[in-house]
Design a protein that fits this description.
The complex is a heterodimer. Chain A is mainly beta. Chain A has 1 helix and 7 strands; from the N terminus they run αβββββββ. The radius of gyration of chain A is 14 Å and the shape is globular. About 15% of the residues of chain A have low confidence. Chain B folds into 2 domains: 195 residues, no CATH class; 122 residues, Cytochrome c-like domain (Cytochrome Bc1 Complex, Chain D, domain 2, Orthogonal Bundle), CATH 1.10.760. In chain B, strands 2, 3, 4 and 6 form a 4-stranded antiparallel β-sheet that branches. In chain B, helix 2 packs across helix 8 and helix 9 crosses helix 12. The two termini of chain B are 43 Å apart. The mean pLDDT of chain B is 95. The chains are: A mainly beta, B alpha+beta. Chains A and B meet through helix 1, strand 1, strand 2, strand 3 and strand 7 of A and helix 7 of B.
């Protein structure tokens, strides 16, 4: 399996998990994309991701206590949910719950307009 | 015996020197690569039915339905709809472009399968009222795209001048995918790699799921009704998707036609009036596992960057691209084209030049002011590409 396929799979685990929502198990998946909406009060994030022209939006609940970090020069500095902005590129791990996807970790890796050099 | 050998050699030389035809692979492939190209063509030529996974939302029933003229990988007469919402006055820190991905965007399919029609009573995917623009998109020729895929990011970024620091009025800037990687494919340079361009197309254009895109498109954001997509997912294996991409990757760019003296003069005019500031005549590929694509000069006539083309051409936004920004269209294969610009509104290259605006205004005006001979020479040059 080549790297692109792996990247694509990583980006698209979310919809697979959606299909598996009814299962009793809690898969641990990840997504990388640009923040579309941050709702601090509801503690939710929407992340735009996809492959080519096939775009998807992954909605994540972000319970208090979920580690949110900013990756800068190899360091992971803790930040608050309110510091995330639309257009931030994030990598999030999450699991499927009956109420939807719940974030386990969120890492800001850059901004869309500035580019991100690290591999997804 | 010697005569036979000479005849055989002549045949071999003639075969090697034969002009590449549209749809041919690049020269220099190994036997294994050639076999993959042929296998990939079979996937590319496949016609999908609902039972084989077509739809339930789709623009075409296979790659070749659109990419058919003059050969597999060429263009077609289909026009599809892209729609997004652009908020020019979005507050700082928010995105101006909403690709309407949560509402089924940005590709809104023109057709539905009978089962989806029966379930929802629709003939095409509805465009949400939130859209601020709908863009029409013609089918691009994809000859030579494997070479464009092999151009290093560093070469593209080297041409970027987002703040126009050299004050030439040209400020190409990169578009980026949602994960921050540099984009290059698509009229707005959204997609970073050829594989993703193709995998995304299987989903967005044909409604075919793959391991890379395992879920169907939604109907304006709502999952498709149960029972409307009988084929099990993924509807195409990773191997088949990879073969289709290999076919596209190895398609040779169309060979330019032989230049007359007038066309050679036109090449100089092309550079003199400033066309080449965006339509960069040559890009160079980087390292590639395929020798035939490795460190090659490509007469692409593009910088793969976004440029403001003025309000008359503007339509949708996409990622970082504003409505008026478009990627410089590659001019390789221009002699094969029958319609021009992203939506096919121009029926000749001359009309297309006349419709350039924005950053291209100065070059367009210089074109308009050319003496008749120079103007004819430039157009003669374009017809050889």
């Amino acid at each position: 399996m080549d790297r692109v396929t792996l990247l694509s799979l990583a980006a698209f685990i979310a919809p697979v998990a959606l299909a598996a929502q009814a299962r009793p198990t809690v898969p641990h998946d990840s997504v990388r994309g640009a923040i579309r909406v941050v709702d601090v009060r509801a503690r939710t994030l929407e992340v735009t991701t996809g492959v080519g022209f096939a775009l998807r939006v992954v909605r994540l609940q972000v319970p208090a206590g979920v580690p949110i970090t900013n990756q800068q020069r190899g360091q992971h500095e803790p930040i608050r949910l309110a510091e995330l902005k639309p257009g931030d590129v994030v990598r999030a791990s999450f699991g499927a719950r009956p109420t939807g996807f719940v974030a386990y970790t969120i890492e800001r890796v850059g901004r869309m307009d500035a580019g991100v050099h690290s591999t997804p | 015996m010697t005569r036979w050998w000479i005849a055989l050699m002549a045949i071999c030389v003639a075969a090697a020197c034969r002009r590449l035809q549209p749809g041919d692979p690049v020269r220099g492939l190994s036997a294994a690569e050639r076999a993959q190209f042929d296998s990939g063509r079979a996937v590319f030529d496949s016609v999908f039915t609902p039972e084989k996974g077509l739809g339930p939302l789709f623009n075409a029933n296979g790659c070749k339905e659109c990419h058919e003229d003059p050969a597999a990988g060429g263009t077609g007469d289909e026009v599809e709809r892209h729609a997004t919402a652009f908020h020019a006055n979005a507050p700082p820190g928010s995105r101006m472009c909403d690709e309407l991905a949560a509402q089924g965007g940005f590709v809104f399919q023109n057709h539905v399968t009978p089962l989806l029609h029966a379930a929802l009573g629709i003939d095409s995917e509805p465009i949400p009222s939130a859209a601020t623009a709908v863009g029409r998109r013609t089918t691009p020729e994809i000859f030579g795209f494997g070479l464009l895929d092999a151009v290093p990011d560093s070469e593209i970024l080297a041409y970027a001048d987002p703040d126009d620091r050299d004050h030439d009025g040209i400020s190409g800037r990169p578009n980026r995918f949602f994960d921050g990687r540099l984009g290059r494919f698509g009229r707005k340079a959204l997609v970073p790699t050829l594989r993703e361009f193709n995998d995304g197309a299987f989903s967005a254009e044909i409604g075919i799921t793959t391991p890379a895109v395992p879920t169907e498109e939604t109907v304006a954001g709502t999952p498709i009704p149960p029972g409307t997509d009988p084929a099990p997912d993924p509807e195409l294996s990773d191997h088949q998707a990879e073969l289709a991409t290999t076919f596209v990757r190895l398609l040779a760019p169309p060979e330019p036609l032989q230049m007359s003296r007038e066309a050679r003069q036109g090449r100089d005019v092309f550079i003199r009036v400033g066309c080449a500031r965006c339509h960069r005549p040559v890009l160079t590929t980087g390292d590639s596992p395929i020798e035939a694509l490795r460190y090659k000069k490509v007469a692409a006539y593009t910088d793969l960057l976004l440029h403001d083309m003025g309000p008359n051409l503007g339509d949708i936004c996409l990622a970082l691209a504003t409505p008026t920004e478009f990627r410089t269209e590659p001019l390789m294969g221009l002699h094969l084209k029958k319609q021009f610009l992203h939506d096919g509104r121009a029926s000749t290259a001359e009309q297309a030049v006349e419709m350039h605006g924005g950053e291209a205004t100065k070059a367009r005006d210089l074109f308009r002011a050319l003496p008749a001979g120079d103007r004819a020479a430039l157009l003669a040059f374009l017809k050889t590409l």
